[in-house]
Amino acid sequence: MSFLTYLINGLSLGSIYAIIALGYTMVYGIAKMLNFAHGDFIMVGCYIIFSVSAALSGNSVIGIIVAVVLCTILGVTTEFVAYRPLRGAASPLAVLITAIGVSYLLENIALLIYGADIKSFSSVITWEGVSFAGGQLKIQGVTIVTILVSVVILIALQLFINKTKQGQAMLAASEDKGAAALMGINVNRTIALTFAIGSSLAAVAGALLCSAYPSLSPYTGAMPGIKAFVAAVLGGIGSIPGAMIGGMVLGIVEILSKTYISSQLSDAIVFGILVVVLLVKPTGILGRQMVEKV
Amino acid sequence: MNKKQTKNNLITYAIVIAFYIIVEIMILTGNLSSHMKGLLVPLTYYAVIAVALNLCVGILGELSIGHCGFMCIGAFTSAFFSRATEMSIPTVPRFILAFIIGIAFAALFGFLIGIPVLRLKGDYLAIVTLAFGEIIKNVINSFYIGIDSKGLHFSMKSAMEMGMDKDGDIIVNGAMGITGTPHNANFTVGIVVLLITLFVVQNLVGSRDGRAIMAIRDNNIAAEATGINITGYKMMAFTISAAIAGAAGVLFSHNITTLTASSQYFGYNASIMILVYVVLGGIGNIRGSVIAACILYLLPELLRGLNTYRMLIYSIVLIVMMIVNWSPKIIEWRKRTFGRMNLKLTKEA
User: Fold this and answer.
1) How many domains is chain B built from?
2) ipTM score here?
């Protein structure tokens, strides 16, 4: 029974990674850039929920809405100010370093406003959860909500990309920007939209992450951000179902290795899985093989 | 190697030596605060690892964000050696041996990690180097090694598990790391290591092997078609780069009392910080890496007076510098404006 509990906890953590990874994979797919600041958008989202809830004496629903809106604005602004000028730069590293700069900037702004001490975040989900088999198997409310939210987001995104014009425009722009522009797609606006979706997902992921692990500091987002990127690569970067699978695998492996092997080595095992998968399939689980032409 | 390159290399050595002389004069005349003196050794090892990373990113053309892992290996193996033989070998030969051991282990791991990593491409390669860096850090954090009259003891669980005698000495204590490594590194040693590093890398770049490596970077298919052994040269550059990072690690561990495999020094954030030095110094420009490492390492320290705002200012400077230096539109604008100015000046003359 305890194994089942750990497995479900793993799925829940994996769902959070998956939601973050969706943001990473969409942005990477279309802008071909590693948005290192993505993890910090999560942290910003958490702090906004924290402040708004405190101001409204614990009304977290409004907090989440405000966080999603502000994170979306933040994502689009960052793209416009910091990343768009560097599109088409001679080296792809330029925009990577700028993203690192944005990451430092957000962390230090949070540090100035809230200080370095860890804030305790009160969960946005007040549901106790359910218990099966006479209390032997207890599943927390946060866990269930997290898994459900991630599934809903996955389905919604798949529908959006495959069924709407904007979604098709995203696919086209990620395939070939020049050709997409010739077909009348506004590439800049499409990329901005991708950033908007990715950042709003980061805010949602932040609410869930801090509900499950209620400690908030300016560096909260960094490690989940990196792990989510690993999840995106594991699943095949650019692929939305891939991000989901990668996130789940990573979450389950992390929780199980923490429980059964060693909490010290769990990160090493998580990264070890990535290495093994990429060696067997160099483009990730669901990634497409690109043929290099001369 | 042609004349222009030789001249260029000599300028780099001259800059480093001039910097060394100026700093030594400032120390002698008492113009350097003790805080600044404490920054001198870190300055040299960050310059060394920046050159190492530039060899990997700029010359070989493969993005690595796990280079601090190799630094970590160099630091731990050499510190272990120095601690274990502190009583039995005199300082100078021990420190030289520590360098050899640190470099050799970093090179060995560079070679072993290079075999799988260099099969991948682009961002996939980058993320796997990041993964290896984190794995190295985490695994070292769970090592326990002690020494007593019966010999070496080893465990991956806890210090008690090793079952040592009472007089035993715990050298590597898990997450608490290695304590009490002798402070052998100083500014002069650091500068010597930096000069040797520059000598090795600059000569490599100017050699036949270096040209082969750069050919692979520019177009690997064309390079292969001309008969260059791609895997061999890639492995060579990656291993040398890891070995130099290991040398930086030896300097690091012999300048610090308690060596721990913490994220602050060996995590991906530290590797990224060094990547920032390399990119701002100019990708592929060895001298640029050294200068950028010095300036960027000192910048947050010089801004210490601004205290809480210093990292904020640093991050804004970083973003603005990247946009000004790399944005295609700004480059074009700069060419137009300053190009016209140059034209005017020549006409007037």
Assistant:
1) 1
2) 0.85
